[in-house]
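Forum > Structural Biology > Help requests

Title: Can anyone predict the 3D structure of Pali-domain-containing protein?

Hi all, first post here. I have the sequence for Pali-domain-containing protein but no way to get a structure on my laptop. I'd be grateful if someone could post the structure tokens.
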Amino acid sequence: MYFLFITPALTFIAFLLLLLVSLSVPIIKSIYLFSLTTNVSSSLFNSAAYGAVKFGVWGYCISSVDISRVDQFTDLITKTTTAALVLHPIACGFTFLTLVISFFMLRRGSNGTARLPSIITLGIGILATLLTTIVFLIDVILVAVIRNRVNDRTDGRIVLNWGNAVWMALGATIALWLAMVGACGGVCARGRRFHTRKTEQY
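Reply #1:
Sure, ran it for you. Structure tokens for Pali-domain-containing protein below:
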């Protein structure tokens, strides 16, 4: 019985997280994959300058202080990486489809089970879960590789910080894997209960 409610709830959480990640910088400025910050100070004039660039799925946003060398770091993100980042909205779309179908798990069929919606949810959900896992791995690898390149090229003058979008993708991945366990439980438990009920009638 609990499996019926766990799957839609966890799928909704995963969809919401993936939607927010898909709408990251420059659309939602507080959600980003990583940020580059620099804090340059001069003892000669006792002055300091601070600047930051936040990178998201669709681009980047620069803080109010002008950073003239940002173009050097945008070419760190290749066309292949950009193509990989497009998987974010695709995973979000498949998760939404899984969410819609999972609501049919709450409605029982003529035989008293919701086995068919559970099977369809499981099938499409596994695809969404695998895509989301790939998206999370791409995010982690992307940020780690760019962090190493930035450290090598700037000798620590520019610092790369992990963004919250990476951890939101992790949350969506975990939620989807747990939802798929719930969908499996919905397929197995509902089928067993129906089989037991039929046996008792004879």
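Residues 2-24+77-201 form one domain. Residues 115-154 form the longest helix (40 residues).
Shout if anything looks off.
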